[in-house]
Amino acid sequence: EIVLTQSPDTLSLSPGERATLSCRASQSVSGGHLAWYQQKPGQAPRLLIYGASSRAPGIPDRFSGSGSGTAFTLTISRLEPEDFAVYYCLHYGRSHTWPFGQGTKVDIK
Amino acid sequence: EVQLVESGGGLVQAGGSLRLSCAASGFTFSNYEMNWVRQAPGKGLEWVSYIAGSDGTIYYAASVKGRFTISRDNAKDSLYLHMNSLRADDTAVYYCARGASSGWYPLDFWGQGTVVTVSS
Fold it and tell me: How far, in whole angstroms, is CA B35 from its chain's centroid?
């Protein structure tokens, strides 16, 4: 079973700065089946990235995903006030389980 | 517009049972895989269960296997989660989430969740 580990646990940044979030898998993620979600307090998660690097419909281009194998990255090029939230990665391959990372909180410095 | 609306949450004693429902609209429900995901207070997301669109394939997380049962009624565009032998650590917001219609695609649309509280 694949285990996803995100780092850091918390990222303190200012609006306008670049955010780089990491998601590492315990074994290779087949087909790049790695997604990223944003969750704000009291809200359901929102899909940002799928297939490691494809933006979901309606997602601004300041969000980008990259990586393959066991190492994946979500980058927010310039943080907007509405981007301060918790971010999760998810593996959705044929493992018969859908493991999430533990989350990275991006908060205002 | 895709909509998923959960219901059925509430307060239940440890050892009790509860049935959650998820009403789907805005898409051809039978074509899509569906999932339940939960989030304990102040914690991260935990996948709970999966059901295929129409071939009966079902999977469970180890933490709920043998206690929870996922089902769907495609005629009613509805997803269900029957929860038995509830424990305090089942306390969470339970979300239904849409999966793929074909190929590989993550959980794209989520409901707003229903709160389950298990008292010990």
Answer: 5
